[in-house]
Amino acid sequence: MIKSSVTAHWHVLYTKPNTSLKVAERLADLGVVVYAPTRTEVRQWSDRKKKVQVPMLPSMVLVNIAEKNSNLVFQVPGVVRYLFEQGTRAKVQDNEVLAMQLYLEGKAVLDQAKVQVGDTVEVPKLEKKATVVALQGKKCLARLERLGAVVSFQLQ
Question: Which residues pair with 153 in a beta bridge?
């Protein structure tokens, strides 16, 4: 589980294409707290199949870094820039990072008996309201109101 420090914030770094995992590794070597969520995919070539780690956020890495050290990330090859939102560096809340981690670990759950399509629910660990758009077995798909993004989590 990734922990953030009190004086630092999570920011989003944009990287060159296909370099986010290498950038995350190099930043970690510099002592920067990084999070680059991945999933395992099976890729097929003409002669074989192989499991590979694929970034969940292509060309992006989350960094937890204090303002005074924010330029340290540019020492790493492959870092392009910080992402901005309304003129300031985009910040990601700790609970949003935790929600991603729990989702990838399959630990984000909601009681299945109480959920129906069209309901407004609070997404586990994210503490954000979302509207349920689909139920697929024990999986719930919900649209986040503010972002318009669809999230998925497990039902109990």
Answer: 140
